[in-house]
């Protein structure tokens, strides 16, 4: 059951990122929901499930929306591993850890894409882009991560599911 | 080292990182990895199409809501209508809009003579701000090939950059990596146009460059269209109108900001030009 909820959450995050927030954003400023979900999965379930989720969603995103196949998958996978690094090291109620991890991952991701865009021939002005897009979107991503982490922890890791997981252990 | 190979998660991660870097490098040097892209694209396409349509409906709902001038009257009227009638009305309206768009595209395509083209729907747009890429619901099965130009009723949209079995990716002219050879309609000056990087698709602009230095009579409102030089885009396709004329930073020439004629945020149907029938 929990596996299907995982899949559902992944599909919803993919939809929000690639369709919904493409239409509803403020001057391009928007959260990266897939990255948030990947990081949150990492903190709540461990590195491998999160890295796999990030890898699959990143690959689909790359194939459909990017010029190169691989960068998003790589960053999402590493974000899942980064989130998973904190698995069972902090209380799951801690929202600072996933929010900070998501923010750092997003910041790195956007810089990787800035470099790719420059190589592809684009000329984005760095400081303008940093101030008007990267930093605001990083903060929005951190804020959304705190919210989504609470929701995922409460519903995906309900005491009933936790008992199931303990039984499985 | 042995410890590293015994640690399964680290080993899997290292292999995945190497594979993804290889994939990124390979896809950057040559856009021919259809076995992976085509398969995943073909599987995900129906879901993507549904999701895109759903979002369009939400978007339309909000735009209608804010554009209503007499909301109370409209509400009272809507309450009296039956659900079925409402649905029929919506369907009719949607068909009518689609019909208008397609008719406009056909008229536009007809003005170029003997064009062979495929009509298609936009099923996805790139996320993030770095690239301006659209996914269409036509691909290799419909005869689509890389570098085919894409137009809509308002003008040039871009060119096909990747082709799958039943889908293709189009890089829009507002993408800052795209360059198009153009002509100023009034002065007949040949120059180039490229996309200007913007974090918002609503503010997308084009930059006109390589204008002849001895010509200064470019004025706002001048229409820019493709020159046919380069062989990719047929001659005479509209790109937009000059918004602002300015001197280059080192005073070596004149640049201009061009407002694109296509609304890239709301584009729904496009035409991929398969051949220009020798008219270009």
Description of the structure:
- The complex is a heterodimer of chains A (169) and B (280).
- With 169 residues, chain A is mainly α.
- Chain A has one domain: Arp2/3 complex 21 kDa subunit ARPC3 (Orthogonal Bundle).
- Helices cover 79% and strands 0% of the residues of chain A.
- Chain A has seven helices and no strands.
- In chain A, helix 2 runs antiparallel to helix 3.
- Chain B contains five helices and twelve strands.
- Chain B has a single domain, classed as Rod shape-determining protein MreC, domain 2 (Thrombin, subunit H, Beta Barrel).
- By secondary structure, chain B is of the alpha+beta class.
- The longest helix of chain B has 34 residues.
- Chain B has a six-stranded antiparallel barrel with strand order 1-2-5-4-3-12. In chain B, strands 6-7-8-11-10-9 form a six-stranded antiparallel β-barrel.
- Classes of the chains: A mainly alpha (169), B alpha+beta (280).
- Chains A and B meet through helix 1, helix 3, helix 4, helix 5 and helix 6 of A and helix 2 and helix 3 of B.
């Amino acid at each position: 059951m929990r596996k299907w909820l995982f899949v559902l959450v992944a599909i919803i995050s993919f939809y929000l990122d690639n369709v919904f927030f493409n239409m509803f954003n403020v001057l391009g400023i928007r959260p990266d929901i897939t990255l948030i979900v990947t990081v949150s999965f990492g903190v709540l379930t461990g590195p491998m499930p999160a890295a796999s989720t990030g890898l699959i969603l990143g690959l689909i995103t790359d194939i459909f929306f990017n010029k190169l196949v691989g960068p998003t998958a790589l960053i999402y996978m590493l974000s899942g591993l980064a989130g998973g690094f904190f698995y069972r090291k902090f209380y799951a109620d801690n929202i600072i850890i996933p929010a900070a991890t998501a923010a750092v991952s997003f910041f790195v991701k956007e810089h990787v894409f800035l470099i790719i865009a420059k190589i592809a021939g684009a000329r984005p002005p760095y400081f303008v882009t940093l101030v008007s897009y990267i930093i605001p979107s990083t903060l929005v991503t951190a804020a959304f991560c705190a919210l989504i982490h609470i929701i995922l922890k409460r519903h995906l890791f309900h005491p009933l599911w936790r008992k199931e997981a303990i039984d499985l252990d | 080292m042995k410890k590293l190979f015994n640690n399964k998660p680290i080993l899997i991660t290292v292999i995945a990182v190497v594979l993804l870097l290889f994939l990124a490098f390979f896809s950057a040097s040559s856009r021919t990895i259809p076995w992976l892209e085509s398969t995943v694209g073909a599987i995900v396409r129906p879901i993507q199409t549904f999701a895109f349509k759903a979002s369009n409906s939400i978007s339309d709902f909000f735009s209608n809501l804010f554009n209503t001038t007499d909301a109370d009257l409209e509400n009272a009227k809507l309450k009296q209508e039956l659900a079925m009638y409402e649905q029929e009305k919506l369907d009719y309206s949607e068909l009518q809009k689609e019909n208008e768009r397609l008719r406009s595209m056909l008229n536009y395509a007809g003005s170029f003579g003997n064009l062979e083209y495929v009509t298609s729907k936009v099923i996805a747009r790139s996320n993030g701000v770095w690239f301006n890429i659209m996914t269409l619901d036509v691909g290799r099965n419909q005869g689509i090939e890389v570098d085919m130009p894409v137009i809509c009723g308002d003008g040039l949209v871009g060119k096909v950059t990747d082709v799958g079995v039943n889908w293709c990716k189009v890089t829009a002219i507002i993408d800052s990596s795209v360059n198009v050879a153009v002509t100023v309609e009034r002065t007949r000056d040949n120059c180039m146009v490229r996309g200007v990087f913007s974090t918002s698709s609503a503010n997308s602009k084009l930059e006109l460059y390589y204008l002849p230095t001895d010509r200064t009579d470019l004025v706002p409102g001048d229409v820019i269209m493709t020159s046919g030089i380069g062989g990719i885009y047929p001659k005479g396709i509209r790109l937009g109108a000059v918004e602002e004329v300015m001197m280059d930073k080192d005073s070596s020439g004149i640049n201009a900001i061009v407002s694109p004629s296509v609304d890239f945020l709301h584009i729904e149907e496009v035409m991929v030009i398969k051949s220009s029938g020798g008219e270009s």
